[in-house]
Amino acid sequence: MPRVLIATKLDPVAKNILEEAGIEVEVRPGLDEDAMAEAVAGCQGLIVRSDKVTTRVLDSAKDLLAVVRAGSGVNTIDVKHATERNIQVMNTPGENSNSVAELVFCYMLAASRKLVYADNSVKQGRWEKSGLMGTELMGKTMGIVGLGNIGGLVARKARGFEMTLVGFDPLVSEARAAELGIELKSLKEVFAESDYITLHVPLNDKTRSMVSAELLKSMKKGAMLINTARAEVIDRQAMLDFFQARDDVSFGADIFYEGDKEGEKDIARFGDRLVATPHLGANTFEANSRAAAASAVGMRDFLLKRMVHHPVNNLEIPPDLNPRFLELTRLIGEIAYYNVGGYQPHEVRITCYGRLNKHIDLLTGYLLKGLMDIFHQEVISPREAEVRAAESGISVVKRIPDDNKGYGESMTIDILAKKKEYLETSIRGTISPDGELKINRIDSFINLDLIPGGQMLFTYQQDRVGLINDISLALSNAGLNILNIRFTTDSQGHSIAVLQTEKRVPEEIFSLIERKVSPYKAFLMEV
């Protein structure tokens, strides 16, 4: 039985997920280096947040296979040494994004309406209304530096305030920026044109001190700079000099050069022009729960299935391959499994379009690994999967893609099974611009555009008027909330309906729907 140490304060959902999978869990938050080194000995997995995972800790755990950071930043983990020890490091990007994005607007509203000062003033018995004239966000320009998960969420929320959006991110295309409602600009233009500038970039050699004295001096009169990323992306001395020279600008900070600890902070000298919080970006109940669940799922899937979610050190994954394509192969394989009635396939075909084709061997390994897990519940590595598939009588065909079809970076997986008759299914999927797994086509049903998730009900049937109403009514009468519906038809008059529900559909309701709809195929699935 694998053993995992949760060496941080984390929502209980993490422990529950691991224990339900048969994994032994020990929860010991607040360990120093010595105590963590002792506690992790004999563990195969370690889950942390901002806790330090040093060379000594890693070397003390001879059986350690994976470290998961319940969050995004891994600067407290010795990733280089973990890689040398062949220890997989993963994180949970995006789970804290909404909390950080909302905090950005806390700073903006607090500064624009002088909330901190006003709150203290009223509590002290004063009434200074005439001296606390504020400004509105509507019509102002927001500059977003870094258009990843958090930057994208900030943009969506800013549109609700009717703000003009400009942004800088050298890795984002104009088409993607346009989807977010952002006009791409140079970094200098963003600083010069924005009333509010918010930073959402990682700390690396290219971003360290990227906010220079020159950029700071270009800020508009009355502008506000917000940093929820890393303190070091702003040049420290330039920052202090600038705020001393300009008394019209303000600053929102969730992180500090001095680190996460008590004591004096350099930027405290900014006084009322500073809105500061003690690294609260991810500090919400919701974010904690999401990050805890994601870290546990990542650890569980790696220890039991050797599936890698959000790798940091890419032990086996090429740097030019989005690791979510590995998840996609497993997902398509699982849907295909249900589509052929749960029968073991005798032939698997995979086609990788565009630049994916160079990684077809690796993707085939992950596809077969997923299928072997489904059919045999065996723990095997993707590198062994093709050999084991052959041993199980599964023929594997890697097809040459026809890139003239214009499918971009996507994959098509065909699975053939034989019971009393031949059964075949063909599924094509890709990764959406937002990084979501997407199923474009299932068999003859094109343009399905399904983003799988949670509890799903699939039905395939002869199409007729009132079909979706019958399914929806059965679910509604059973008190089941429908989160999403995808529906399409083919040229033969058949239709497919995929309904995502808040809770799993009980068997009796599933049977009732089958009687109402008379599908030639139907199944329940959880992602």
Structure, described:
The structure is a single chain. Helices cover 34% and strands 22% of the residues. With 527 residues, it is an alpha/beta fold. The protein has four domains: 3-94 and 286-305, 3-Layer(aba) Sandwich (Rossmann fold), CATH 3.40.50; 97-276, 3-Layer(aba) Sandwich (Rossmann fold), CATH 3.40.50; 318-425, D-3-phosphoglycerate dehydrogenase, domain 3 (60s Ribosomal Protein L30, Chain: A); 450-527, ACT domain (Alpha-Beta Plaits), CATH 3.30.70. The strands form four sheets. It has a seven-stranded parallel beta sheet with strand order 8-7-6-9-10-11-12, sandwiched between helices. Strands 2-1-3-4-5 form a five-stranded parallel beta sheet. β10, α11 and β11 form a beta-alpha-beta unit. α1 (13-20) runs parallel beside α12 (285-305), α5 (97-112) packs across α7 (149-160) and α14 packs across α15. The mean pLDDT is 90.
Number of helices: 17
Low-confidence stretches: none
Strand content: 15-25%
Do you know the CATH topology of the largest domain? Answer: Rossmann fold
CATH architectural label of the largest domain? 3-Layer(aba) Sandwich
Give the termini separation. 24 Å
